[in-house]
Model the fold of this input.
Amino acid sequence: MKAIVLVSGGMDSCVTAAIASTENDELAFLHISYGQLTEQRERQAFNDIADHYSVTDRLDVSIDYLAKIGGSSLTDANIGVSEADLDSTEIPTSYVPFRNANMLSIATSWAEVIGAKAIYIGAVSEDSSGYPDCRPEFYAAFQQSINTGTKPDTHVEIRTPIIELSKSQIVKKGVALDAPLRLTWSCYRSNELACGTCDSCALRLRGFQIAGVTDPIDYAL
Done:
């Protein structure tokens, strides 16, 4: 079976790719940039991970119209990337409005063309920090859209294998599957050394700490 894996270059998508590699005969990697601050570094991570898994069928596209729409600290220079507040229940400034729906739409289009039967995405409820498009019910709803809006003979399943896992469990899963975590990039701010203080860095660092595993990337801390 062929499956598409959405690979941002971050830890979650890397572990998701590792899981997908054990469940499918062939993988196709999809990377979608959206005008984010760390676009260049994330693309490097995507290609490094694809090389690691010997994936030749890869698609790298841009939906930088999301940056033109704005509304997120990841795409709008006028909105600063906030310091991590892991206890907050508010939707953070890093939320890119309805981003994952845009990405899943592209993945579904490609799946119809190449005959992929599944789309893997590394969504994590804990990682969402209040992101509405990281909730299981969002993916259940989008599955209905795929079922309704594609050809009758198209059968594509959204798979979110780590959505209920904590960050520490994701780290442990990655280690168990020998996922190349050293190649990943999670920082929202920097293309050089990871800042260590944005939400994404803080969640990652806490996950490694709780798992009792050393994070293999370097930080500016």
Remarks:
- Residues 99-114 form the longest helix (16 residues).
- The two ends are 43 Å apart (CA to CA).
